[in-house]
Amino acid sequence: MAAEGHAPTAGEYIRHHLVHLTNKKQEFIVDFSVINIDSVVFSVLTGLIGVFLLWLGARRATAGVPGRFQAAVEILVELVETQAKGVIHNAASRKLIAPMALTVFVWIFFMNFMDLLPVDLLPAIWHAVGPALGYPDYLRVVPTADLSTTLGLSVSVLLLCLFYNIKIKGLGGWAHELVTAPFGTSRNPLWALLLGVVNFLMQMIEFVAKTVSHGMRLFGNMFAGELVFMLIALLGGFAALSFTGGLLFVGHLIAGTVWAIFHILVITLQAFIFMMLALIYLGQAHDAH
């Protein structure tokens, strides 16, 4: 991470923490064969935790007075179901979409929650284990601070939108919508052709813009939060090297505590926003223009 025998500078520390553990050496080119192993592993682990907790809540559900855990799960399920009913009016579609939205919310929350772990906790453990196993000394633990993860989630929402556009409107009906909305059409063949091309391009731009912004919003917020925690960690590191270390250490504790408390709201809000946008986009797929 730094030159032999020297402590890393602030820039080296941050750069090191922003490098993913991958399946091959990273180059400054677009290479879709590169897999961020750390993002995949922590995404799967947090997903399993979320599914297990939801399963546990369903297994422990009773008809009597609910306990705290059951009450919390019921409140969450009712919240998501209410939001789904307000956006998607097709009851048959909600049987799939509402549980999907609940899963997405819980999964993204736990992926975001990884940002609340001490910055150097898991990387320090990997530093002692990874190189000994022949792996590089890099590890990022917040999957949603990886653009490939968030864009993967948003592309999945896009594919569901395409599926429901065809299922609800039929292939012919959706194809007609692609060339007639948002600007309509004309009885004049030449104008109808021109408007059809413009409408189709506008629809493609809308799909791309919604998908990219959907993933970028989550990524941007979580990446920024990760950087703030790194800067706070550096404040603690400087405290050990400074004559005014006591004051810096107190500042490190206060800043870390305040940001962690605020970040609990951020990670919850970002999970909710991603879920709501997914519901809105899927609801739009059910509506005719």
Automatic annotation (TrEMBL):
Keyword vocabulary terms for this entry: ATP synthesis, Cell membrane, CF(0), Hydrogen ion transport, Ion transport, Membrane, Transmembrane, Transmembrane helix, Transport
PANTHER family: ATP SYNTHASE SUBUNIT A, CHLOROPLASTIC
GO cellular component: plasma membrane; proton-transporting ATP synthase complex
Record bears the keyword Transferase: no
Main location: membrane
Compartment annotation: Cell membrane; Membrane
Membrane-crossing segments per the record: 40-58, 147-166, 190-209, 229-251, 258-282
Keyword Membrane appears in the UniProt entry: yes
Lineage: Bacteria, Pseudomonadati, Pseudomonadota, Betaproteobacteria, Burkholderiales
One biological process term in Gene Ontology: proton motive force-driven plasma membrane ATP synthesis
Tree of life domain: Bacteria
Entry similarity comment: Belongs to the ATPase A chain family.
Name of the gene: atpB
Chain's role: Key component of the proton channel; it plays a direct role in the translocation of protons across the membrane.
Protein name in the entry: ATP synthase subunit a
Signal sequence annotation: none
MF GO annotations: proton-transporting ATP synthase activity, rotational mechanism
Pfam families: ATP-synt_A (PF00119)
